[in-house]
Design a protein that fits this description.
The complex is a heterodimer of chains A (291) and B (114). With 291 residues, chain A is mainly α. Chain A is built from eight helices and seven strands, in the order βββααααββββαααα. The longest helix of chain A has 44 residues, at 196-239.
Chain lengths: 291, 114
Amino acid sequence: MVSPISGSTQAVAQTQQSTPTTATTAVSNTAKTSSPESSSANATSNKTTRSTDAERYTAVQQNLSNSKTAIGAASTANKEIDTQLKQVRDIATKLADEKITGKDREKLQADYTKARDSIIASQEKATVKSGSGNNATKTNLLTDSKNQTVSTNTRGGELEVASSKSAKALGLPEKIGSAADAKALLSGDDKKAGSLANAEKATQDTTARLKKADEDVSKRLETASLAAKAAQRLENAKAGNSRTLSADQEEQRNQALEQAKQAREQIKTQFSGLSQSSANKNVNSLSALFS
Amino acid sequence: MNKAIQLYQQTRQLTPQSKQLDAQVLAQICFALQRAMDSNDPFALNQVCGDLRLVWVTIRGLMLDEQHPYPQSLKESLLQLAETVLNELRQEPVDADLSLVLQISQEMVLGLNG
């Protein structure tokens, strides 16, 4: 099952080499996705790929947001796996009893297969999809063979969110054929691949790692959101539409501009400047302010 | 009598100069503001907004001077404009209507250059 990540289809980030206004693709669970071809395309169609500061900050924000979604999906799936591993331990403990035979054993074996399949299903549930079409990428922080790379700012800063790189079903055997198999599964220490202790340890480590990654990404997301908002406000200010003005405010603004125009014409007719003939010694002339 | 003529000549030379100096100061700040807005540089914006605040506080002080030679109506008009500008500059640069501040300041430059 693949959960879609809502938002932009392409998260954009700045690489150290790129110019400040050139956008490059940077969301990926496989290091970096920008290819020489895409760099070349960027160069040739620079005008079309130029983005504003606000867009780039928003892209970073989206990138971090996608990462947070991936971490969230992995955490939820990991919790399910933790519960399923407890069931596996119960079943394996029963299967280790040689006295259990016949239909009872078959039922327990079927329960084990079901629990193992549930673990696989939960692992798959951790997959999230971002983007669409050719830009679509899938991220699974439980089973991906590579870590997820997340852009954290517009200057090329990156954060690696580690994947657990877990094997299918955490390496648990497909079947427990005998009491001896069950005992082997239960007795192996956490360093032995395929042992139950190893699977449980991996799940606990994943929980701790995802919690830390979530805290880190959340903090960065908060900063990126503020930066994106500030950049947007700056661009709005530059464009003269920093605020949505009410009709009254708009009228006041226009009046101020009209008043400034009238004052301009009146000043033109004056012989002296603004700083002329100040008798007040506490008031500077304008030129004295910066001399 | 000679002294009076001398003073008149000095005044004739100094007054246009003071008008130009004021225009120069305001024009430089307008340029700095435009550049800071274009570059979206928060540091430069903070700096230029500080300078503008100082300029407009000074203009307000000058216009409150009863002995200032400008007509009362112009002084009142400039006081109102100073309030408008300073109201904007009391806010964070990202929240202020800097486009309005810039336009008003540029009108002053045009007037002083005229």
